[in-house]
Amino acid sequence: MTAPRVTSATPGERSDFGGTERTTVAIVGTGFGGLAMALELLRNGFDDFVLLEKGDDVGGVWRENTYPGAACDIPSPYYSLSYEPNPTWSSRFSPQAEIQQYMRGLVDKYRLRPKIRFGCEVSSATFDEATNTWRIDAGGTTIVANVFVPATGQLSRPKLPDLPGLDEFTGPSFHSAQWDHSVDLTGKRVAVIGTGASAVQFVPAIQPHVAHMTVFQRSAPWILPRPEVQYRKWHHTLFKLVPPVRLAERFGFWLLCEVISLGLVDAPWMRPLISQIALRKLRKEVPDPELRGKLTPDYAAGCKRGLFSDDYLPTFSKPNVSLETTSIERVEPNGVRTADGTLHEADVIIYATGFRATEFLGPITVRGAGGRDLAEVWRDGAFAYKGMSVPGFPNMFLMYGPNTNLGCGSIIYMLETQAGYIAQVIREVARRRGIAVDVREDVCTEYNRALQKRLDRSVWTLCSSWYRNASGRITNNWPGTVLAYRMTARRWQPSDYRTVLPARSTEGVTV
């Protein structure tokens, strides 16, 4: 069967192509994970792949999160692909629009746009044992691929709080990851529910414009100094003409994050040093002892995601800002009622309540060999070999999968490692046409047993957070440095996998 010719959509258009398309590799998502995978394939001389994107542009979380103040909290010289440096970042912690533009630049430079199917949301993926191919349902089209690479990320599905009355509020309300820019906050009473990474950025950004803002806090975050630098033209010139200077900055932040990562698992003696830095900052920026008490975390530093800001804490001393630590009872038509019976009236509610981070692959139904349902396999918590391979799901490799998130460091470094590993497997699959490889169950089990043993002594066991699922299993984080992960996943070992032959010959089928 000859596949129909498909052209990519430009941003804002949808690819309604229908029918069936065949390819060797299908990558889901055009965030950093999907792009890193695609670029690694091109770097290896392999171009038979497509990228399936539900949105109308590339960027992943950097396309979706457009709230005021949205920016990276890892320095951009480190939060970028090692082989694609950008010497012209406007600042050390680049804003959302600039990061997305960097990603668009990668797409244009490597001419990836014709390979992207915009407006193409994947609903299911099923492994066909007869042909050793994946049949992927995406926006009315079937993609038949030898290799299935989900790169949907861990922070792509916003989570609303489990509170009664969410639908009763009569004013505008939205999640920070779905910011409604049509809502003018000027002169409004705004209720902010949640104090995670997004709130730390947008709360000080909107404070000067609102009449009053009430921030509802369940637990105070650890706030560390943010060593921001606005890069000038002379910085850009220096970074271009003297690359070692740029590399030195990247190396410095890499090294700092590696040292902090050791403190999260292997060097607990470092944790008090981190907490003292944060507490000193808190004392300096919040003079009122009562307010400072509310903003003091009651859990170990590092147990939840540490945040970097120099304007979040001072915002609470502004006359139009209130911090509410009493638990929320319900949302009502005119505002938010707390457990003490007080109604906090609001014109707008903004939910800064994070993502469904432990629900890997989200609403996509994935069925492997023998009809095995991935959601059922992961019922007690997601797991994968080196965060990429799951037994019973041949030729499926995850980008940013279970236990590859970081407590400190650049996820781009991790994604580069994963892309390099997966590219090695894809070369083998392409060389031995028709085969599939499936990670051995004993190898995956032993890997995760050792991994969970290390996680059991990490700081993340000391509190509840989005790093852990409902049963308490830590499914998101890698318990070590990014260098340790690279050494672990640097080379694909065929002995870790079994070769799966198709149930019937694929002769004459082009894939």
In short:
The chain has 2 domains: about 20-155 and about 355-500, FAD/NAD(P)-binding domain (3-Layer(bba) Sandwich); about 165-230 and about 235-350, FAD/NAD(P)-binding domain (3-Layer(bba) Sandwich). By secondary structure, the chain is an alpha/beta fold. The protein has helices at about 30-45, 60-65, 95-110, 195-205, 235-240, 245-265, 270-285, 290-295, 310-315, 375, 410-430, 440-455, 480-490, and strands spanning about 20-30, 50, 115, 120-130, 135-140, 140-150, 175, 190-195, 210-215, 225, 305-310, 320-325, 330, 335-340, 345, 350, 365, 435-440, 495-500.
Helix and strand layout, with pairings?
Elements: E1 19-28, H1 32-43, E2 49-52, H2 61-64, H3 96-109, E3 116-117, E4 122-128, E5 133-138, E6 141-150, E7 173-175, E8 189-193, H4 197-206, E9 212-216, E10 223-224, H5 233-241, H6 243-265, H7 271-285, H8 289-294, E11 307-308, H9 312-315, E12 321-324, E13 328-332, E14 335-338, E15 343-345, E16 348-351, E17 365-367, H10 374-377, H11 411-431, E18 436-439, H12 441-455, H13 482-488, E19 497-500
Parallel strand pairs: 1-2, 1-6, 2-3, 4-17, 7-16, 8-9, 8-16, 9-12, 10-11
Antiparallel strand pairs: 4-5, 5-6, 13-14, 14-15, 18-19
Helix pairs in contact: 1-11, 5-6
Plain-language structure description:
This protein has 511 residues and is α/β, with parallel strands linked by helices. The chain has two domains: 283 residues, FAD/NAD(P)-binding domain (3-Layer(bba) Sandwich); 183 residues, 3-Layer(bba) Sandwich (FAD/NAD(P)-binding domain). It is 28% helix and 17% strand. The protein contains 13 helices and 19 strands. The strands form five sheets. The chain has a seven-stranded mixed beta sheet with strand order 3-2-1-6-5-4-17. α1 packs across α11 and α5 packs across α6. The longest helix is centred in the middle third of the chain and has 23 residues. It is globular, with a radius of gyration of 24 Å. The N and C termini lie close together (10 Å). The N terminus and C terminus are likely disordered.
